[in-house]
Specification:
Number of helices: 12
Oligomer: single chain
Number of domains: 2
Distance between the termini: 43 Å
Order of helices and strands: EHEHEHEEHEEEEHHEHHHHHH
Protein name: Glycosyltransferase
Radius of gyration: 20 Å
Keywords: Glycosyltransferase, Transferase
GO molecular function, one term: glycosyltransferase activity
Helix content: 40-55%
Strand content: 15-25%
CATH architecture of the largest domain: Alpha-Beta Complex
CATH class of the largest domain: Alpha Beta
Organism: Adlercreutzia mucosicola
InterPro entries: Glyco_trans_2-like, Nucleotide-diphossugar_trans
CATH superfamily of the largest domain: Spore Coat Polysaccharide Biosynthesis Protein SpsA, Chain A
Number of strands: 10
Largest sheet: 10 strands, mixed
């Protein structure tokens, strides 16, 4: 029976909800890690299936290397918060119970973090169709230099907001403010916006280490007006938290740029798939929201031709999207974007 060290170098947090089919594969991939100085914290978030029984069976074989938090259902935000509070590692990572990781996931991320003295370390991943058993895309594997977020804040736009392909310095996450009303969707965006203003160095491994499984029912789901409103309110709450903490103007400007990227582009793209939604009305409300709460989205130097030409990639795409949005051409652009995906099967990765 293996046990975790008193102060492991890494804590991996695995929230579970209706995960009985995929959970064994996920846990097996974590217990087969080449880097063993880890603890696995799995939160059974009131799951109605056999997830808690599976966790207890694994704990019998792995001792206190697997920490189980069994609680009533409160959602992934609260589950991750509970995991962070419990974590003893110097670094914290996340793995979704639907996914699994390569055997060197922890080793490569930890060594990269240690060498770079990074607050956030990012690895690439495979986006895989679970039903068809094939890779849809390989992402974040291009060579990228380590950067200082305060000196190059625009480069934070390069990062996907999912936490499951990253290691975070534990002290960074443990200082993150909680929200009274976390959003029911886009919770990953909210978490990162609470982390980014306090991040120094960001490093990349340059290789894919995570198998991110795409399910048929998760490709594109409708989003309700209530969910949109809750997400809008959560981002405003984050802005107020950071203002009260004295966050500098550079990072507040980054927050406006991120709000445009995720609310103005990603959220509107998701709404555009809802045939019951009045996209024109939602776009007008979206612009009014950005203008009121994140006024610098239109003029922020974070989204600029200078950064688009220097960094290319996500920075170039966001700069072009802002031109389209400001010209009131977003509805047509979203339609063309969806048509391209349907015809080619290829998506533009942000």
């Amino acid at each position: 029976m293996s046990t975790a060290s008193p102060s492991p170098k890494i804590s991996i947090i695995v929230p579970c909800y209706k995960a009985e089919k995929s959970l064994p594969r996920c846990l097996d991939s974590l217990f087969r890690q080449t880097f063993q100085d880890i603890e696995i914290i799995s939160i059974n978030d009131g799951s109605p299936d056999r997830s808690i029984d599976i966790l207890r069976d694994y704990q019998k074989g792995h001792g206190d290397k697997l920490v189980i938090i069994n609680k009533q259902n409160e959602g992934v935000w609260a589950a991750r918060r509970d995991g962070i509070a419990t974590a003893r590692g110097a670094y914290i990572g996340f793995v979704d119970a639907d996914d699994y990781v390569e055997p060197n996931f922890c080793e490569v991320l930890y060594k990269t973090a240690a060498i770079s003295d990074a607050d956030i370390t990012v690895c690439g991943f495979w986006r895989e169709d679970e039903a068809m058993h094939h890779v849809l895309s390989e992402e974040l594997t291009e060579p990228r230099n380590t950067f200082d977020a305060l000196c190059e804040p625009a480069r934070l736009l390069e990062l996907n907001t999912a936490p499951w392909n990253k290691l975070f310095r534990a002290s960074l996450l443990k200082k993150v403010s909680d929200l009274r009303q976390p959003p029911p969707v886009f919770e990953d965006v909210v978490m990162h916006l609470l982390v980014f203003p306090h991040t120094n160095r960001v490093a990349f491994t340059g290789n894919a280490l995570v198998h991110y499984l795409v399910h048929e029912n998760s490709l594109m789901t409708s989003i309700t007006a209530q969910q949109i409103t809750a997400t809008y309110e959560a981002l405003v709450a984050v802005k107020e938290i950071e203002k009260s903490r004295g966050t500098n103007q550079i990072m507040m400007s980054l927050m406006a740029a991120e709000a445009f990227l995720h609310m103005g582009i990603s959220l509107m793209f998701r709404v555009s798939y809802d045939k019951t939604a009045n996209l024109g009305t939602v776009l007008r409300e979206n612009r009014a929201y950005l203008d009121k709460h994140f006024r610098t989205w239109k003029s922020s130097d974070i989204i600029s031709l200078k950064h688009a030409l220097k960094y290319k990639g996500a920075n170039l795409k966001v700069w072009l999207a802002r031109i389209v949005y400001r010209a009131h051409l977003m509805r047509a652009a979203l339609g063309a974007y969806r048509l391209m995906i349907e015809k080619t099967g290829r998506d533009i990765k942000w």
